[in-house]
Write a structure and sequence with these properties.
Blueprint (H helix, E strand, L loop, with lengths): L1 E3 L1 H7 L2 H12 L9 E5 L8 E10 L3 E9 L11 E9 L5 E6 H20 L6 E5 L4 H10 L6 E5 L3 H13 L4 E3 L3 H7 L2 E4 L18 E4 L12 H6 L1 E4 L2 H7 L1 H9 L7 E4 H6 L12 E4 L4 H16 L8
Parallel strand pairs: 1-6, 7-8, 7-10, 8-9, 10-11, 11-14, 12-13, 12-14
Antiparallel strand pairs: 2-3, 3-4, 4-5, 5-6
Helix pairs in contact: 1-3, 1-11, 2-3, 2-11, 3-4, 3-11
């Protein structure tokens, strides 16, 4: 059985291949039951921890399950907020094939799913990206979006100026023209792509800041009580989600906007499956404001796990479902 650490997982999941694998998985007949989502009270911490169990399978090919823990207060311990592992098994025999480091898999598949959405929703000439958040996902999102759009400038905003500068420095080391922005509103008003990856419970990006043609990528709010955008952003934009079930049960930005009456379920234009298969159109003009809201889907993890396993194992068979 293969055991892949974070570095090995990252090397096996090149952005173009991963984005294509996730697209193919969304178009497949992947089995994906509702994920287990458990809140765990943490004595002494401000926020509860979360345990996620996410199973998925391709009949007669692969079965996988990811266990992820989210500890929002881990920053006080000098640790990442997210830990996890992925067990990939044979869909023919049930034999365990690989254990893959779940944090890196999650970070890369999450960013890749946003980049996949941007293929359909961001303007083709999008050059300026605003990265809201300085956590583990931020660099992944920059790289993933840069693989599908010709980014020339990246602005980084975070609640901590020191963390924002550290993230921008890491981005520059990767070859990006990245700098810290102190004024979130000013940066949001000029950006072509705004990507948010935070654990915020109050809106950070406001709808009246959004210029015509902008694409807003919302990733961090994975609980009903969390949100990164306000009602006006949801109301003004054409809204797309990763999965309808996930959006209606876990996407705080969507759920809270529906509860206030700003939008209804019918305002969700489509999900990734329908975008990939062509059942719905994405961007249709350069002035359209688009929003993609994701909460994560088990099929994305399965796509990444299969790609990593087949890449490392040197399997020549199809990595796309």
């Amino acid at each position: 059985m293969l055991v892949l650490n974070a570095a090995e997982t990252a090397r096996a999941l090149a952005w173009p291949a991963l984005i294509d694998a996730i697209a193919a998985m969304f178009a497949s007949d992947c089995g994906m039951p509702a994920r287990h989502h458990h809140d765990i009270a943490m004595p002494g911490d401000e926020a509860a921890a979360t345990l996620l169990l996410m199973p998925a399978w391709l009949a007669d090919r692969y079965i996988g399950v990811k266990q992820v823990s989210v500890f929002p207060d881990n920053h006080t311990r000098g640790l990442p907020a997210i830990f996890g592992s992925y067990l990939l098994s044979s869909g023919k025999t049930g034999e365990s094939l690989a254990i893959i480091e779940g944090g890196e898999l999650t970070a890369r598949r999450t960013a890749a799913a946003s980049a996949l959405a941007a293929r359909y929703l961001a303007r083709a000439e999008a050059e300026h990206m605003l990265m809201v958040g300085t956590g583990r996902l931020s660099l992944n999102l920059m790289q993933a979006h840069a693989s599908v759009r010709p980014l020339k400038r990246i602005s980084v905003w975070g609640r901590s100026p020191d963390k924002a500068e550290a993230t921008a420095k890491e981005a520059r080391a990767l070859g990006f023209n990245a700098s810290v922005c102190a004024d979130l509103e000013a940066a949001a008003r000029t950006a072509d792509i705004i990507s948010c990856a935070t654990l915020s419970t109050t809106p950070l990006v406001h709808g009246d800041w959004l210029k015509p043609g902008v694409h807003l990528d919302l990733i961090g709010a994975f609980k009903a009580g969390m949100r990164e955008s306000d009602d006006e952003a949801m109301r003004r934009a054409d809204l797309y989600v990763d999965t309808m079930e996930g959006a209606l049960h876990e996407a705080g930005d969507v759920i809270q906007a529906m509860e206030s009456g700003a939008i209804t379920k019918d305002d969700i234009q489509g999900d990734l499956r329908r975008l990939v298969t062509g059942d719905v159109k994405g961007r249709t003009d350069d002035r359209q404001i688009t929003v993609f809201k994701s909460v994560g889907a088990a099929c994305e993890d399965l796509a990444g796990a299969i790609l990593a396993y087949e890449t490392v194992a040197g399997i020549d068979g199809p990595s796309k479902p």
